[in-house]
Amino acid sequence: MATVTKVKALFSRDDIIHTRGYHVVASALRDGGIEVILGGSQLPREIASSAVDEDVDLICYRIESGVPTILVETLMEELRRAGSSDIPVIVGGIIPHDQFDELREMGIKGIFVPGSPLDDIVKCALECSKNK
Amino acid sequence: MFKEEVIRELEQASQKYKEEVNRILDKVPDAMREYETVSGISVKPVYTPADLAGMDYQRDIGMPGEYPYTRGLFPAGFRTRMWNIRQVTGIGTCEETNERWKYLLSQGMTALAVVGLGGYGPESDDERTIGNLGKNDVFADTLYDYETLFDGIDIRKIPIHLITSGPVPLAMYIAIAEKRGIPQSELRGSLSNAVCDDPDVLDTIEYCAKKIPHFNATYVDTRNVREAGCTAPQEIAFGMALFMATADEMIDRGVSIDQMAPRTSWFVNAGPELFEEVAKFRVLRRLWARTLRERYGAREPRSLYLRPHVQTYAPTLTLQQPFNNIVRSTLYALAAVLGGAQSMSVNSFDEPLASPTEFSATLSVRTQQLIYHETGIPAVVDPLGGSYYVEWLTNKLEEETLKIIETVERRGGAFKASDWMVEQVRAQAYKAQQEIDSGKRALVGVNAYRDERDVQQELIRGGQIPLHQYDSTIRDRQIARLNKVRRERDNEKVERAKEMLLEAYNSRENIVPAMIEAVKTYMSQGEIGMVRRKSNRYRGKTFCGADMLPYGAYLWGSDVWG
């Protein structure tokens, strides 16, 4: 059998409180064949640095407590500073609809809100990490 | 409860009935042939006295206000007093939350709960607060913020609950009371000091049990365990197991069960599967009373009372067709009232989108008022008691619960079995989502009766129903509040208090007395956190995955166990 390189994703979140969705999505990503590194609750700066250290193909960012545009803007800046703007980022959680366009302009590859089927998230994660 | 010949006759009749029902079900292609509750309990199309064979009314059910309290703690139920309407509130700085509290009180809310406040920081000017300070809960740095929060609130009259954990908020609350001339012996209130093996949580319970007899410091937060994904029997079992592990620890510290048990409050969920939820409240009361009397030898009658505060289930609230959430939460609240809740917070319809507004929070208050005044339910205590189905389900749920408690005990009790418990909870959450994705279980508006246009969301997107908007000046205003305190307080006093706090931490004495002195100097929570980090008490990033302890129960969300 040919060796298949697993997609490696860093999965971080913005707060320490409710994490049901975070762990459900992490399970789905794993079952979808992705190697998931749980970053836990991290600041954008910490996410960027973990992503570089772990040499991941993808960043998944769960946002619930914070303002998505503020957090994502900082994350993208930190990635640029680290010379790792090529790492695709997808976000999920409580993301207000009126921030979608701004988030896409910042380079976010996928936005998932409550009600998103797990398969859609896994499919998006696999597709955008392929294009890295 | 029933004569043997009645049961025998019924068994024959039931057999005949079963054949008849199966014949009918076979003819209808999409009929519900099998049904499992959300907790995986298979239920039949009908229940009869035959399902209650061996049950004894006096022993297993009893009158309301009588052991084992299956039917409720009080003889007259809601006829003497409505449950407390206690909506979770927390927004912006303490000024905004105080204002929201006063508004909701004017609308008929009868108890206060505040979410946020933190524990060990960070301070408001830390980078960790960027983009979130005051968005989903209230932020506090020092006693000054607590003073603002409680401004104009009579803490002798209105029941207060702080949704945070540990000795810092307790000390702040004691300091507020002291300023108002309320001695600790008369102080009332409660804290989400969720039982776990953290020494700060245990110190808080011990201190209150010994010094503040009317303050509820032992908090069994099983609502958030359910929220994280578990089943109804797991919700009861994990709560009981966590309480028992804590009680054993307290007994070792010289606190008697009768000092601790009456000041224990339970935080319980009310969600889908109405009858199972009603049965859950009945099991909780019965199992608690029996456990406390038989296992712990409690003598104080109040030790046998399980008093549930309820918050309705949130994971099924949908972003799609958000107004459906009003109906959903009403059904969940109904289950809690039928089950005999003591106080309740009903989630607002807009919570999958943002924090509740005055408008949506008021609707949650109205939901409760409407159930109380317009349904007739409060007139009869435990109105579903005696339903063959509900009594059977109560027994079944209790049986399942006892099996889980036994497993936890075999694994060394709740503190040692916590990683196993977390695994169980997460596996259930994953399974539930897969059932929604596959269409096995309907979620209206998401996998059934979808509306691609979503006229309900259009109302919100069009601004007709405004959502809570985050105000990014909140952080600057909070930092200004902190800086004012830094300028005006006696900083030498603060430094001395820091040394004393560090000493108290290192000496392993109960931390609460030193904490009270610390907060009275207007030392910030962030500074307290720094002192704790330097002490022997600090165990590194604990179960919250961060250097703070806002809600003990969120060990369910921790990454410590992977």
CATH fold group of the largest domain in chain B: TIM Barrel
How helical, in percent, are the residues of chain B?
A: 40-55%
CATH homologous superfamily (4th level) name of the largest domain in chain B: Methylmalonyl-CoA mutase
* Poorly predicted ranges of chain A: none
Termini separation of chain B comes to: 49 Å
Which structural class fits the helix and strand makeup of chain B? alpha/beta
CATH architecture of chain A: 3-Layer(aba) Sandwich
Please mark out the parts of chain B with pLDDT under 50 across 5 or more consecutive residues, or reply none.
541-562
- Mean pLDDT reading of chain B: 93
Rounded to the nearest angstrom, the distance between the terminal CA atoms of chain A is: 25 Å
Strand order of the largest sheet of chain A: 2-1-3-4-5
What level of helicity do the residues of chain A show? 40-55%
**Main pleated-sheet profile of chain A:** 5 strands, parallel
Question: How much of the polypeptide of chain A forms β-strand, as a percent range?
Answer: 15-25%
CATH class of the largest domain in chain B: Alpha Beta
> Count of DSSP helices of chain A?
5
| Spatial sequence of strands, sheet with the most strands of chain B | 1-10-9-8-7
* SSE order of chain B, one letter for each helix or strand: HHEEHEHEHEHEEHHHEHEHEHHHHHHHH
Shape call of chain A: globular
Task: List the chains of the largest interface with their residue counts.
Answer: A-B, 34 and 44 residues
Structure write-up:
The complex is a heterodimer of chains A (132) and B (562). Chain A has 132 residues and is of the alpha/beta class. Chain A has one domain: Rossmann fold (3-Layer(aba) Sandwich). Chain A contains 5 helices and 5 strands, in the order βαβαβαβαβα. In chain A, strands 2-1-3-4-5 form a 5-stranded parallel beta sheet, with helices on both faces. In chain A, helix 3 (68-81) links the parallel strand 3 and strand 4 (89-93). Chain B is of the alpha/beta class and 562 residues long. Chain B folds into 2 domains: 4-52, no CATH class; 64-461, Methylmalonyl-CoA mutase (TIM Barrel), CATH 3.20.20. Chain B has 19 helices and 10 strands. Chain B has helices at residues 4-27, 57-61, 94-106, 143-149, 167-179, 199-211, 223-227, 232-252, 257-260, 274-295, 324-339, 358-374, 388-410, 418-437, 455-461, 473-488, 491-506, 512-520, 525-534, and strands spanning 84-85, 88-89, 112-115, 160-163, 189-191, 215-216, 218-221, 264-270, 308-312, 343-345. In chain B, helix 3 runs parallel beside helix 4 (143-149), helix 11 (324-339) crosses helix 12 and helix 17 (491-506) packs across helix 19 (525-534). The longest helix of chain B has 24 residues, at 4-27. Chain A binds chain B through residues 14-20, 22-24, 27-28, 38, 40-41, 43, 45, 64-67, 70-71, 74, 94, 96-98, 113-115, 117-119, and chain B through 127-128, 130-132, 135-136, 224, 227-229, 315, 317-320, 352-354, 426, 429-430, 433-434, 437, 443, 446, 457, 461, 467, 470, 472, 544-546, 548, 550-551, 554, 556-559, 562.
